[in-house]
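Annex B. Sample input.
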Amino acid sequence: MTPQEFLNEFYKMPPVEQKEVLETLSEELSEAQAEDLRIQKALFDAGLLREIKSPRRRRLGDFKAVKIEGKPISETIIEDRR
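Annex B, continued. Sample output.
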């Protein structure tokens, strides 16, 4: 299911069910962030990290592709390996 298909189905739900879905997603995200923080803290305590970074709030959709001229990087990598 694509994100757009999910949203289409989500908007068809009654408000009570929409609220339940949002709460569940929020809990899942909180648990994932807590697990990431726990792992970072363990690595920091072991001396493998210099700092513990806060989770990024930027969405992937905010990134824009950069147009690069010339050969594709994959071709360059393959040539360098030969």
